[in-house]
Amino acid sequence: MRMLESASRWLAMAGLVVLLGACGGGGGGGSDGANSPAPPESDDPTPPEDENHAPTASVQFPLSGSLTTGTDIPVRGTATDPDGDAITAVTVHGVLAETDDGFATWQVPNVPLQAGTNTLEGVVQDARGGVGRFSLTLEQVENPGPALHSPKGLALDTVSGEARLLVIDQVLDALFALDLSDGPTLGHRTILGQTGDGHGTNFLVPSQVVVDTAENRALVLDRGSIPGTGKVIAVDLATLARTELVSGFSFASSLALDTTNNRLLIGDSGTDRLLTVDLDNLAAGTTNNVSIASPVSIDVDPASPERALVVDTVVGIEALFEVDLAGKSKRRVATFNNPKAVRFDPAGGSELAVLASRENVFSDNLFSVNLGNGSTTLLSGLDEEDTVIGTGSRLTQISDMLFDPRDANRLWVADSSSRAVFVVNLGNGDRLALGSRLGSGPDFLAPAAVALLPNADARQPMVVVLDDILNDGSSEIYGVNLAPGDTFGDRVTLSGFDADNPNQVRGQGPRLLDARNLVADTANNRLLVADASANTVVAVDPESGDRSTLSGDDVGEGPTFDNIRALAVDVANNRVLVAQRGSLVAVDLDSGDRTLISTGNGSGETDIGTGPAIRSPISVALDARNNRLLVLLFDINDEELGGLISVDLSSGDRTVISDPATGSGNILRIPVSVALDAANNRALVLDSAFGFSIDQVPPSIVAVDLSSGDRSVVSGHDRGPDGEFDSGDDQLIGGGSPFNPTSTPADAAFDAEARILYVTDQSTGSLIAVDVDSGNRALVSGFGF
C-alpha cells in the first residue's frame, strides 16, 4: 500500500535486490578470469590504469529462492560496470537478454523451468571482455489447488490405497480431498464435489462427512437451508456422483458411522434428538434414541459400538454425555464452557476422550477427558494461569477433529476461522497447519496488511506483514526475510503473539484489536497501525515489539477519529494522513495532534474542500510530487462507489480519477489496496475477491491512468472488452502461479525501484511477489497459492 521511499538507499542496505557476485575479468580474449593465471606480484600497490574490473548484474525479479507453478519465468534486472565500460551482453540460462538501454536494464522473457529446484546461471560481459557471473535459485512445484474457506467436517479415506483427508467446506459448498503424503504436495487440495458441478444432488449447508469404506462412498450431512430440508448425501468416491440417501431432518448438525451395525448416528438440534438410520433398511426411516438439545458432535466407541459420546452445546447444559445406544440412556461426563467436538482417544482403551472447548477468549483448547470420573487434563491451548501448552498458531474456531490411525498422538483439527486443518501433537500440544510452506517461522493464517521497511539494516526483515486472525481478538506483526540464502522467506514475530515462543509475547502496550492498515514511519524507526476498533493510530517499535498510542481519544488534540481505515506517512510535513469515514485527518508524528484536511461534500458550512465525499475509504497512497493523496473507495452495499479519487492536501478538494462512470476498462469490483507508480503516472490497484465461490470473478492488479482514469489489467484476470467474467473474451495476464480460485488478496506494497508489488492473500496464507512489468507471480513466503 505504501510506495517505497528512499528505495535505492534501502535496497543497498537490506539487499532486497539480489546483488550477485562477479568473477574477475581478463584483459582480452574473452576470458572470464576463473581459470586465468594469477598476475605477477608487484611492489607497486597502484593498479595499472588499464585494469579491467568485471561488470556486475542484479536480478530484480524473480527473487532468488522464490517458488512458482509456472513452467517458465521472465528474469529481469540491471547491469553496471565499475569502469564505465559498455555492457555488451547479459545471458541467463544461455539465453541472451533483451534491452533497449545498453543493458542498464535487461530481461529474458521466458526462461524454461523443470519440476523441482532450478539453478539459473547468468553471465554479464563488458566491451573489453570483462565477465561477471551470477545465479539464482527457483523452485517449480505443482499448484496446491483451491484454498479452503471454512473447513468443517473431517474423514479419512484409505480406499484408494493413498490416505487422504476429506474435508467439508461449508462456505464453498464443497467436498475436498487433502493430500497426506509427505513431501511438497502435502496438504494439496482437490475438489471431489461442489454445488453446481452437475454431478447430482447439490450441497446446501454441508457440515459433516464420514467414509463408508464398504461401499466406497462418502456420506455428507447437509443441514439444508430451512428446517426440515436436512439430508444425507452419498458421494461415490469412484465416479463422484452424488445421490440423496435419506432426508427430512429438522436441523441436523452432527454425524457418525457405526460400521459394526452399519448405521448412522445423526444429531438433530431441531428435534433435540439423537437419531439412528439403518443403512441396510433405509425405508424404515429414522429411529429416536435419546434426547440431546444441541448435539454438535458424535463419536462411536470402536470397541463397543453400543456406546457413543455426544457434545451438547445448548446454553445451560454445555456438557459431554456418554450414551448407551442399546438402552437409550445418557450420562453426563463433564461440563465445559463451550464444548465443540469430541473423539474417543485410541490410546485410552475406551476410557479416555479428547474434547475441544472454548474456555477463554483467546483460543480453543484440547482436553483429555477421563470418561469414568470426568476429570480433565489440558493437552493443547491456554491454561488458567495464561500459560500456553504447545507451540504454533492458536486454534480459534474448532469445527471437527479426527485421530490419525497411524499415530495415536496425532490429531487433525479443522479450524474454520483460520481456514486451515491443523496437525496437533497430543504429546506436547504443538499445533501445525497442514501443508507445505516456503520459509520457516510462524505461519501466515490471515495475512492482511503489508509494508516495506526502507531503513532496515541487513539484520532486519525487509517486509512486514500484519496477520489478523478472525475471532482471535488480536493481530500479530511478522517480519519476512527476502535476502537470498537458506533463510529466504523465513518469518519472525516483531510484535504480538509469537507462535514459536507462545509464552513470550513480543512487546508491551495496547493490543491490536481490529488492525486495518500498516505503514512504515522510517524517520522514527517504527511502524504505524490503524486500529478501527479502538479508533487509534498505534506506533510499533520493530526492535522491541512495544506498542504505544500515537493518536486517539486519550492522546493528541483535535477532532476525534471515526472508523479509521487507511494511513499514509507524509515525511516532508512530519505527519501521517489518516483516511476515515467521511474525512481525511492529518496527525502530527510528534504530538499526535489531529487536524482536518478534507471533509464533507462541499455543501455544508463546516465542509473542507469541494467534490465527492470520502465515503468508505479503504486504502490510500501519497503522491507527494503533486501534493495530493490518492484515496481508494469501496462499499460492498454500493456497486457504484468502487473507485479512485484524489484529495488536494492544500485545499481539501476532492476529484474523481476513476470510477464506473470515469475511464475505460474493467470496472473495479472489490478494490482493497492502492499504490503509486509515479514513474508511469499510474496507480496500481489490487482488485480482490470474496473467496466465497470457486466460480468467483478472479482477482487482478489494475493500473489506473492518473490522467484519464482508464483501467488496464497488469496481472491476473482481465475480463475483456465486455467487462463480464467467463464470457469468452477473458484472459490471464502474467505467467507463474495464477491467483487461487478461492483467494482473498488483502493488501499490497510497492517496491518502485525493483518494480515488484508484494501482495498478501488471506485465504491461502501467502506473500506473493508480482512483477508489474510482465504480470508474473511468484511465492516468496508462506503457503503455496
TrEMBL record:
Listed InterPro entries: Ig-like_fold (IPR013783), WD40/YVTN_repeat-like_dom_sf (IPR015943)
Gene3D superfamilies per record: Immunoglobulins, YVTN repeat-like/Quinoprotein amine dehydrogenase
Superkingdom field: Bacteria
Stretch list, region Disordered: 28-84
Ranges annotated as biased composition (Polar residues): 55-71
PANTHER family according to UniProt: NHL REPEAT-CONTAINING PROTEIN 2
Name of protein: DNA-binding beta-propeller fold protein YncE
